[in-house]
Design brief:
Protein name: S-adenosyl-L-methionine-dependent methyltransferase
Number of helices: 8
Keywords: Methyltransferase, Transferase
Helix content: 25-40%
Number of strands: 7
CATH topology of the domain at 16-156 and 180-209 and 265-272: Rossmann fold
Largest sheet: 7 strands, mixed
CATH architecture of the domain at 16-156 and 180-209 and 265-272: 3-Layer(aba) Sandwich
Shape: globular
CATH superfamily of the domain at 16-156 and 180-209 and 265-272: Vaccinia Virus protein VP39
Pfam families: Methyltransf_25 (PF13649)
Domain Methyltransferase: 52-146
GO molecular function, one term: methyltransferase activity
CATH class of the domain at 16-156 and 180-209 and 265-272: Alpha Beta
Distance between the termini: 31 Å
Radius of gyration: 19 Å
């Protein structure tokens, strides 16, 4: 496992609370967005001795799950800018290879290596101006005919004044740090510009709040945890006066969710490198 340090623009913390949140989030997204399939596009086939990459892997939850479903000859790579959330190497399967690498600069020797690249929820990890570079890098490392699966989402639309305040805080924070949710609506063009073909965008909504059952409760908790973990970045950016005041605002937001319900929209994007 490599440990080279590269510039990190991720605005969430890398600590135990975030690790637990990411693992829980993976289970919910796998069930309710991916329909229980790690490779949600059924046209993508992984064969013996193929290589697969999970870019921006975080805790490697997707890569670990996939490793249990494919032949041991399939080599699974996971990259991130930090090893803090990676599993211990001695606990990882032999076919999982963890590397420190940016999605804007993969190793040169990876050109034309991968059958599949999976990347999820990095809108707040990759700055807006770097997305064309990141997609070009994915194009470079894919084999001809290989596929990319991208999954991105945005906070739910405001259902009351508290959620509107939270949304405005997040948007302002993203502007300060060079990130943008506007890219969610540009992936088809960005991928085409990078050389991809067969670009498809599917929108999946995850409703929560207003007595929508156990899944709703789980996702409400994950949304709340993610927003809570943004507190230090908001405070550092001068956007909130105190963490305590922000937590009170999040309490009000949760009450709005319970009363009115809301929905988290995920965009599932698939594209292929020409054969």
């Amino acid at each position: 496992m490599e440990t080279d340090k590269q510039t990190d623009f991720y605005i969430l913390p890398r600590d135990e609370s975030e690790r637990l949140r990411l693992d829980t989030q993976h289970g919910i997204v796998l069930k309710h967005v991916y329909d229980g399939k790690h490779v949600f596009d059924e046209t993508v086939k992984i064969g013996e001795n193929d290589c697969v990459l999970d870019a921006g892997a975080g805790t490697c939850s997707w890569a670990l799950g996939l490793s249990a479903q494919v032949p041991k000859s399939v080599q699974i790579y996971a990259t991130d800018l930090s090893i803090k959330n990676f599993p211990s190497p001695e606990l990882a399967p032999a076919n999982l290879h963890m590397h420190i690498a940016s999605s804007t600069q993969f190793p040169l020797e990876w050109s034309n290596k991968f059958t599949l690249v999976h990347q999820r929820l990095l809108i707040i990890g990759i700055r807006a101006k770097e997305w064309p570079i990141a997609l070009s890098e994915i194009f470079r490392i894919l084999k001809p005919g290989g596929a990319v699966l991208l999954v991105e989402g945005r906070p739910p639309p405001p259902t009351g004044p508290a959620m509107e305040k939270v949304s405005n805080l997040i948007i302002t924070l993203l502007e300060q740090t060079g990130h943008s949710y506007d890219l969610l609506f540009q992936f088809d063009k960005l991928l085409t510009d990078a050389g991809f073909k067969d670009v498809h965008v599917h929108i999946r909504g995850v409703p929560f709040g207003k007595e929508l059952g156990d899944a709703s409760i789980e996702y409400s908790r994950i949304m709340r945890a993610g927003l809570t973990n943004l507190g230090p970045a908001l405070e550092k950016g001068g956007l909130i006066s105190s963490r305590a005041e922000y937590l009170v605002l999040l309490d009000e937001m949760e009450r709005e969710w319970r009363e009115h319900g809301s929905e988290f929209d995920c965009r599932l994007v698939t594209a292929r490198k020409p054969a």
